[in-house]
Amino acid sequence: MRYAVCGLILAVCLLTGSQSAAPPAAVEMKREGKLRLVGPSRGQDIAEQLERVIDFSGWDDPKTTLAEGLDQLAKIHRLTFDINERAFKNEMVAEPYKIEIAMPNPIPPMKAKLKHVLQRALTRVPTASRASYIIRGDRVEITTNAAIREEVYPKGYQGPVLPLVNLNADGTAFDEVLSQLANQSGMNITIDPRIAAKAKTLIVTRFLNVPLDSALLLLTEMADVAYVRIDNTFHVTTAERAEKLQAAWAKQRPVAAPVVPMMDTGMGMDGGMGKGKSK
Predict the structure, then answer these.
(1) Could you tell me the pLDDT band of residue 36, with boundaries at 50, 70 and 90?
(2) Are 141 and 19 in contact (CB under 8 A)?
(3) Which CATH topology does 164-252+266-274 take?
(4) I need a surface site. Which of 28, 46, 204, 235 has the fewest CB within 10 A?
């Protein structure tokens, strides 16, 4: 069943057989020997739009529903939203689009990234794992963290659940790419000054809906370096120094029983080093 309202499409989106990540970005070799991205990038356009800072007027009418709020954002920012009704039904929410999002308190005006406004609205949807969103094709799918986890991670996975990041790098310096990911994820990414030359490695790749640690593993491999996770900080250095730092950190703060939160801001709780395998 499809529920349409003024440019907002609320659809039953089945997770079975769907993929959250975009297909691998096509790459072509130019005559001068440089790799360049080719192929569609609508998902990346949406990701960039969600990162833009907007002047949000707020929602103060206590009767404002999720459908109405999304419809307003869709009209102003020329986006299309889908609601994954199956994901919400799995958490005993039958009609998520009817939920009043300005209750018990209004959502005030703010100057913030569009994604933060969307996340603020989704906090008003009562689900066990919390409502969230994912970019799918040419639209933004409203879903649950449990559904995202099931789709993105392998069955039985018990590790940390980190923010999903998006990247469109077409000859972008490695250090600039890391800065973009830190800004998106809200997590700290530091670079060892002793790898300054490799920090300028030009990256040609495209990520969509990729967990932060997976993105870092692939990117550090491209730059021939490694990363180590210390609490909520990812430090990029040489493979040798990463291994030594990981060992030193393990002695200083032994790992207790793992704590695995559901995906929200995506803050995982354990540490790990990335070079060939993310721990």
Answers:
(1) low
(2) no
(3) Phage tail protein beta-alpha-beta fold (3.55.50)
(4) 28
